[in-house]
Specification:
The structure holds two protein chains of two kinds. Chain A is built from ten helices and six strands, in the order αβαβαββαβααβαααα. By secondary structure, chain A is α+β, with helices and mostly antiparallel strands. Chain A folds into two domains: 13-40 and 129-297, Multidrug efflux transporter AcrB transmembrane domain (Multidrug efflux transporter AcrB transmembrane fold, Up-down Bundle), CATH 1.20.1640.10; 48-125, Alpha-Beta Plaits (2-Layer Sandwich). In chain A, α5 (127-155) packs antiparallel against α6 and α5 packs parallel to α7. In chain A, a hairpin with a 1-residue loop joins β3 and β4 (83-91). Helices cover 61% and strands 11% of the residues of chain A. In chain A, the strands form two sheets. Chain A has a four-stranded antiparallel beta sheet. Chain A has a two-stranded parallel sheet with strand order 1-6. By secondary structure, chain B is of the alpha+beta class. Chain B has helices at 6-23, 25-28, 46-58, 80-94, 110-113, 124-127, 138-159, 182-195, 219-244, 269-277, 293-297, 351-362, 419-430, 448-501, 508-537, 542-574, 577-609, and strands at residues 30-38, 65-68, 72-76, 98-106, 121-122, 129-136, 164-169, 175-179, 199-203, 211-217, 250-254, 258-264, 279-286, 305-309, 315-319, 324-325, 329-336, 343-349, 368-383, 386-402, 410-413, 438-446, 505-506. Among the domains of chain B are: 6-25 and 448-609, Up-down Bundle (Multidrug efflux transporter AcrB transmembrane fold), CATH 1.20.1640.10; 139-221, Gyrase A, domain 2; 278-445, Gyrase A, domain 2 (2-Layer Sandwich). Chain B starts with 5 loop residues before the first helix and ends in a 10-residue tail after the last helix. Classes of the chains: A alpha+beta, B alpha+beta. At the A-B interface, α4, β5, α5, α7 and α8 of A face α10, β19, β22, α14 and α15 of B.
Chain lengths: 311, 619
């Protein structure tokens, strides 16, 4: 059996400094936007009332706004939802008014536009619930990160843990930053999507780490940098194919799934792309920078040592 | 090489059959139907069935089927038009003792149902309806308990001739008793300690120079009180929902002080809220006939009395002490008073309540008694950017009447304005008093047209995303792609079967979870197939490549899936509602995809290639 060369070998790690600059720019932009303009939080977090109304024909938003002008709702946010026939109206929490009263009142006002609008959806979230959700959401994120860090540290090594967590933090910041920059509605489903992105990006990172561990144990002569480069190349096609199939499905969700999960699928689309990138250019370089070495991964009990794959 | 033992194929076959059977009911859809249940004294029997079918026949309507079980009668129809018309017909035929609710009954064939196969439950975002999240005011529950102690202690001290100046609930919590002197205080403490182990007695303000004590309910008893209050509220809400006539309502405790109420199909939120949120109760108090109402109006209210107003705005002076609260009411029915012809409500008390009431009314014959209707309304308002809960208690004397006889288990209340009001009061009383005020803190309504839209869109995106992945896999991996596609299809069937078996609620984020799982489930196969390709490139024989490809990819797949599963479990434990649904489908998807991607594809690959001499693999 002769040693076969990899047909193609990208020097991925050689560009890690450029990637680091690229990531830094993305993160700084994201954080900058988050601090200056923040997120367009949905009523899940802010509390308030949301009413979705369906008209039989398209309406102009200006007309709707004009109708609400001078009423109790002149500060309401009015926007299209999916089509020009669907209008979404958001009202901040109001003193002494319950949501049923608000939606009845809104429908009565909108009737004046002419076409008979139909109440499609109405949501009310009390301010105390919103506060709790924000807290719980953050807590869920931290708990997930902590448990993942622990698992990776046990299965691999602490340096890998740090690399994985760095990649995840990178992804979360950039996806949230994307929502801040585009001012897309950030609701509960987006939070779920970000947690799913954590799962996905981690999945990718673990696959790469698994290869690195395997190669460290097999290749005695190569430097850590080379080992990582080889491992990345070996898993590269898998990384791309899986991302591609996931993206195919996500595009279907984004374009066909309807307006309600639009934010959700957008978050996943951005997250999968960023997550794929970070598993190559954040997780591994961080692990390398922390000085991972063969000794860290010397097997307690060597797997696959009986396989005849060494010349 | 690469042969599977027979038992593995049998296992796969078993899983395929299992998945097929339990996923199948979802294909049959649902029939518009009416669910008839007995509300109180009535029961569902053969007779009910005969009544319903003859009423429908008379009206010239055709029911698809009538199913009967001990709790309810389900009448199925071909379409919604007949369903709506039939509701009125059946309501008239059966009278007020039955609840006739609109429902969608699964059209699952009998043989499937006998295996326990039922379709998935559709979430409110898919079928339309109302979702409420309610918070029980625990502080008020404790306050209410303290009020009860004030009343009990007062009676006890009086009966034992222990002299006190005042007794009442403190603003800061606890009950303050001011005794005449130190001796009375010691006697009082002894009495309380003997009978009330759940009360903690401490000295009051020593600077006052008075003999006073503060009585507090001990912590464990407070927790118990709150637990009971929540339990009672849930029971009460359940009864009220039943009165509303909703099929398949969900009423669940969430956390320590919250209750989720979901009413599928209900569109009239205003009425639902009115019934659910009202915390009405009755109190019976003796009228203070010794003092003048005019004096009280001028600000000189006698110590043992309290000023109330009637419905007509007339002031009424009643004693502070409550003879009986609404907690003991077990039934209430509206009707017409034979003598006066005015609307009334007949009330039935439970045994304990009847005993208390008859004891207390025995000595009061010929005296005037007032019935106070109390309604709690809570709302959260914004004051200077802070959210403050405001409570409004509406107390009205609905009637005062001379006690003619010792009152016992059954008696009547008159003095109501209309029959409608009598009916409402009876309904509220029947449904029981809420132990503590409830506030709606979250509400979501989804119209039926939006629900159908969501189903269509969710379904379409699953089909399109799924097809795209299948096509890609076929082109990229050829024969192995076919194996992966079969596994992927089985995976989808299995997820649906598991969700149906768990009777999980399918929501739109849940559909998104299924779609995402489809995308990610391919990953395991991609890992295996890429590994096989690598092995071939390394010059290994086809059979050895298949073997080591599966072998080597396994630990990677396990690691990757376990970490994702951790994320899903965290989502499940922290999330609520829609996020939970997403986490459930994601977790089930991960588990079933491990099985299908590793064991099933290997089975297919072994079946095709196993034990043969191969020159080349189509991968």
């Amino acid at each position: 059996m002769t040693e076969k060369k990899q047909p193609m070998m990208f020097k991925l790690m050689a560009k890690r400094h450029i990637a680091a600059v690229f990531s830094a720019v993305l993160i700084i932009t994201s954080l900058g936007s988050l601090f200056t303009q923040g997120l367009n939080l949905g009523i899940d977090f802010t509390g308030g009332t949301l009413v979705e109304v369906g008209f039989s024909e398209s309406v102009e938003l200006e007309k709707v706004r004009a109708t609400l002008q001078g009423t109790d709702f002149n500060e309401a946010t009015v926007q299209y939802f999916g089509s020009a026939k669907d209008v979404l109206i958001r009202v901040a929490p109001k003193e002494g008014k319950n949501s049923a009263a608000i939606s009845t009142e809104l429908l009565r006002l909108l009737n004046e536009i002419g076409q008979k609008p139909e109440l499609r959806r109405q949501e009310f979230v009390g301010p105390q619930v919103g506060e709790e959700l924000t807290e719980e959401g953050g807590l869920a994120m931290l708990a997930a990160l902590a448990m993942i860090m622990f698992y990776v540290a046990v299965r691999f090594q602490l340096r890998f843990s740090a690399g994985a967590i760095a990649a995840l933090a990178h992804d979360v910041i950039i996806v949230t930053g994307f929502f801040s920059l585009t001012q897309m509605n950030f609701d509960l489903t987006v939070l779920a999507a970000i947690l799913a992105v954590i799962g996905y990006s981690l999945n990718d990172t673990i696959v790469v780490f698994d290869r690195i561990r395997e190669n460290f144990r097999r290749m005695r002569k190569e430097e850590p940098l080379e080992v990582i480069d080889i491992s990345l190349n070996q898993t590269l096609s898998r990384t791309f194919i899986t991302s591609l199939t996931t993206l195919l499905v996500l595009f279907a969700l984004f374009f066909v799934g309807g307006e309600i999960i639009h934010s959700f699928s957008a978050a996943l689309l951005v997250g999968v792309i960023i997550g794929t990138y970070s598993s190559i250019y954040i997780a591994s370089p961080v692990t390398l920078a922390l000085g991972v070495s063969k000794q860290d991964l010397m097997p307690v009990e060597k797997e696959g040592s009986d396989l005849p794959d060494r010349p | 090489m690469n042969r599977y033992s027979l038992w593995k194929y049998i296992l796969i076959l078993f899983v395929v059959i299992f998945g097929g059977i339990y996923a199948l009911p979802n294909i049959y859809g649902k029939d518009p139907s009416l669910q008839v249940s007995a509300s109180r004294t009535a029961e569902i029997s053969e007779l009910t069935e005969i009544l319903v079918s003859s009423a429908l026949e008379e009206a010239g309507m055709q029911a698809k089927a009538i199913d009967i079980n001990s709790e309810s009668l389900v009448v199925r129809f071909d379409n919604e038009d007949i369903q709506l018309k039939a509701q009125d017909v059946i309501k008239v035929a059966l009278g007020t003792n039955y609840v006739v609710a609109l429902n969608l009954a699964p059209a699952t064939p009998d043989w499937l149902r006998s295996l326990g196969a039922e379709p998935m439950f559709l979430g409110l975002d898919l079928r339309g309806g109302v979702h409420f999240l309610m918070e029980v005011d625990m502080v008020a529950a404790v306050r209410k308990a303290e009020d009860r102690y004030v009343s009990d202690l007062r009676t006890m001290l009086r009966e034992n001739k222990v002299r006190y100046k005042t007794i009442g609930r403190q603003g800061s919590g606890g009950v303050l008793i001011r005794f005449r002197d130190e001796q009375q205080k010691i006697d009082g403490i002894n009495l309380i300690e003997k009978d009330y182990s759940e009360l903690d007695i401490s000295d009051g303000d020593s600077d006052s120079g008075e003999a006073q004590v503060v009585v507090k309910i001990v912590e464990s008893s407070i927790i118990e009180t709150q637990r009971l209050a929540l339990q009672q509220n849930i029971t009460t809400l359940r009864k009220r929902v039943n009165e509303l006539g909703v099929a398949e309502p969900v009423i669940q405790q969430q956390g320590l002080n919250r209750v989720v109420v979901q009413l599928p199909g209900v569109q009239d939120t205003a009425r639902a809220k009115e019934i659910l949120g009202a915390t009405a109760t009755l109190e019976f108090r003796m009228a203070d006939e010794e003092h003048s109402v005019q004096d009280a109006l001028d600000g000189r209210i006698p110590a043992g009395s309290k000023l109330f107003y009637g419905r007509d705005g007339q002031p009424v002076l009643l004693e502070k002490q409550v003879m009986l609260t609404g907690d003991y009411i077990i039934d209430a029915a509206s009707g017409i008073d034979q003598a006066s012809g005015s609307p009334n409500v007949s009330i039935t008390l439970d045994g304990k309540g009847a005993k208390i009431f008859s004891n207390r009314t025995r000595d009061e014959i010929g005296k005037l008694m007032g019935v106070v209707f109390i309604e709690n309304k809570t709302e959260t308002v914004e004051v200077d950017g802070e959210f403050v809960k405001k409570k409004r208690v509406v107390e009205e004397v609905i009637n005062t009447a001379v006690i003619r006889d010792q009152l016992g288990k059954r008696f009547q209340i008159t003095g109501l304005n209309s029959t409608q009001e009598a009916r409402n009061l009876a309904l509220l009383l029947r449904a029981g008093a809420l132990a503590a005020p409830i506030e709606i803190i979250e509400e979501r309504t989804v119209g039926p047209s939006l629900g159908q839209d969501n189903i269509d869109k969710g379904f379409n995106s699953v089909i399109i995303g799924f097809s795209l992945v299948l096509i890609f896999m076929l082109f990229y991996y050829k024969v192995f792609g076919i194996a992966a596609n079969i596994a992927l299809t089985l995976n989808l069937v299995l997820i649906i079967a598991l969700l149906s078996l768990l009777q999980a609620t399918l929501t739109l984020p849940g559909i998104a979870g299924i779609v995402l799982t489809v995308g990610m489930a391919v990953d395991a196969n991609v890992l295996i197939f890429q590994r096989i390709r690598e092995e071939i490139k390394n010059g290994n024989s086809p059979q050895a490549s298949i073997h080591s490809g599966y072998e080597k990819a396994f630990s990677t797949i396990a690691d990757a899936n376990i970490t994702t599963l951790i994320a899903a479990l965290v989502l499940f434990s922290f999330g609520t509602g829609p996020i939970k649904g997403f986490a459930v489908t994601l977790s089930l998807g991960i588990i079933s995809s491990m099985f299908t991607a590793i064991i099933v594809t290997r089975g297919i690959v072994n079946l095709i290639y196993g034990g043969k001499k191969l020159q080349k693999l189509h991968i």
